[in-house]
Write a structure and sequence with these properties.
single chain; about 425 residues; 8-stranded mixed sheet; 6-stranded mixed sheet; 15 helices; 17 strands; about 40% helix
Amino acid sequence: MTYENAFEKIHSLLTFGSRPGLDRMRRFLAELGDPQDKLKYIHVAGTNGKGSVCAVLSSVLVAAGYKTGLFISPYITDFRERIQINNQMISRETLTNAVERTFPVIERLRDEGVIITEFEYVNALQFLIHAEADCDIVVLETGMGGLLDCTNVIKPPLCSVITTIGLDHTAVLGDTLEKIAEQKCGIIKPGSVAVTSNQEAAVMRVIAADCRQKQTPLIESSSIKIKVEKSGLDGSVFDFEGIKLRLPLAGAHQLENAKTALAALSVLKEKSLISCTAQELQKGFEAAVNPGRLELLCGDPIVLLDGAHNPNGIGALQKAIKEFLSEKRIICVMGMLADKDIDSAISLLPGLFTKVYTVPIDNPRAIGSAELAEKFAAHGMAATAFETPCSAFDKAFEEARSDGSAVLICGSLYLAGEIRPHILDRIKK
């Protein structure tokens, strides 16, 4: 089997969509020998900040000498980003070999009426690959929700982490913050410890009640005290317990993510579940990367790439723009998926941009660029629809080079992944 064949087989399962529930996953993993039971985990759920918290946790654990598995979604430019070992994508050979050995099981189960979805399959692959690599710890990001997310087949993790919760995937998870929080809390288990980012009061009540019911200790990120010394588009420098840390991820929301990661690391160290020196902590923070999250791709002109795609994420982006680019003219290139809360997201944007270029995304769930432009118009902002993301970026980039504007590409991580290689190639010319 070639890598291309393996990739095709994985994506052939995309037609089965996303189907919450754990029975299918447990059946499939049993066929593979339950590799998930051979590993230790830090399990991360939330609406926003999951990827950044996972990136910091993984980076620090690697710096501390642990063989660290990482499972994230979605990927930005290469599918193998989803399954990493020591912050490196697995090889094509590793993925191909795993698919070749396991896909016949998928086909046999299908004949028995058990349909495995793409996300379930990729998650099972990472369990198998990380177990066979003898990873010490796996940083495991949920896909959607928590309670019925297929990552939630694991035994009690070393730590469950709940990042900022907002309104997203409401059709599946519920239409209130409380309902969504209940789903996210599904990853909290007795016999473990839980950590939460700063949350709205209603969400915090749900998390606290869930932890009391499960008798699981809860640590809040607010217990972590940091003193910010410097912040900019290239990240922040801050003091934590006398240790100077540099986080190369921009925005005030990344400081909250950093505090959440520090809360998890601190409680794990306190319980002697990990060891980590000050130097290793510094090295880990310095090396943390999370492409497509307010990522500075060019300094002259400024080109920022951000995957914010819901009101909570757009709100964080709005704050960052006001903090770092308040004096700049900004050209926005934006594309979104139709199933997101587009109107609420756009309502946060008036007055931020000089121009808006709407673009399509190569995804069946995407809203067309013309329809997105109409939504901007409904909110009192003129927008020009482009046929491709690359043509819109090229236009914006040339204008920025001539008049000193900044270019911001946002609206979807799928858009970020699609356009990022083109941007990197374009700014070199």
